Amino acid sequence: KGRKEILKYLITKENFELPIKILEIGPGVGVNIEILQDFGEVDILEVDGYFIELINNNKKIKVKEIYKNFEEINKKYDLIVFLDVLEHIEDPYVFINKINNVLKENGVGILSVPAYQCLFSDHDVNLQHFRRYNWQTLKNELDKNFKIRKRLGYNFLLLPIRFIQIKVIKSVVSDTTVNSFINKVLTMIVKFEVILLKMNVNLKIGLSLFAVFRKKDV
After folding, report:
1. pLDDT for 156-212, tens place per residue?
2. What's this model's pTM, rounded to 2 decimal places?
């Protein structure tokens, strides 16, 4: 819920002339598409057949084109979104260069990545992550083609708890299933962070980092 609210907030702040052409890379089950389709026509790039089937069967969302690799794409986009994708890419520089090829000259990219290599754990291994990020390492990977225009930290209230869990208790849990009470508490924390964001309180730290970027020559 929090990620969807942040995504909506970041897109709205760009003041696009709607409707726009949007590409989401790695949409998973398609939860972000519910937000993206309010801003324009949505295409996706997804390699997992199971996720593609779920998206095709979801009556709440509408996707125009489904690509399985960049070579199938023959158009350019106003907005490219890839949330929690970059850490799964073995060679991020090749990936970023392909983003550059399909983003319009005045287009916008929005990404999120898990934060801080010191928090890398079996949880990341289970999720097939190659790395975690800080602002400098993210800048290094984008720097050839793009400039980060906006930085945002997400889940900063839970950052110290996660640090203690991994570094002190040394207990790593990848199961996201929680009871209803804990879920309500986490939902309240997320809503509070979104409220702070809309009040322009942005610490730029957290368990995840969000970045809005554009081409360097724009």
Report:
1. 888 888 878 787 777 666 556 667 888 888 888 888 988 898 888 888 999 999 999
2. 0.92
Q: What are the start-end ranges of the H helices in the chain? A: 2-13, 33-36, 49-57, 92-102, 122-126, 135-142, 159-163, 180-198
Distance from C-alpha of 45 to C-alpha of 75, rounded to nearest angstrom:
13
d(CA 29, CA 108): 23
Q: What are phi and psi of 88, to 5 degrees?
A: -90, -5
Backbone angles phi, psi at 17, to 5 degrees: -85, 105
Q: Are 4 and 61 in contact (CB under 8 A)?
A: no
The token pair at 173 is 């849990």
Contact 148, 138 (CB under 8 A): yes
Helices 92-102 and 135-142 meet at what angle, rounded to 10?
60
Phi, psi of 127 (to 5 degrees): -90, 5
